[in-house]
Amino acid sequence: MYHTELETEIISKMKGLNGNQKSAVLNYLEKIPKMSHSTRVYRRKAMKQIREALSGQK
């Protein structure tokens, strides 16, 4: 359930970004090490950084 909420939040915030901003967010997501995705703490920190980046680029 939490995963769905995060996914919805990211998608809704990305709709308001221009092409360059969307590319920057996607590049950031691709740089997150795949092995660390499964750790709860790392995901929480990554989501916080993504939220800050998305809110700052409006």
Automatic annotation (TrEMBL):
Species this protein is from: Marinoscillum luteum
Annotated protein name in UniProt: Uncharacterized protein
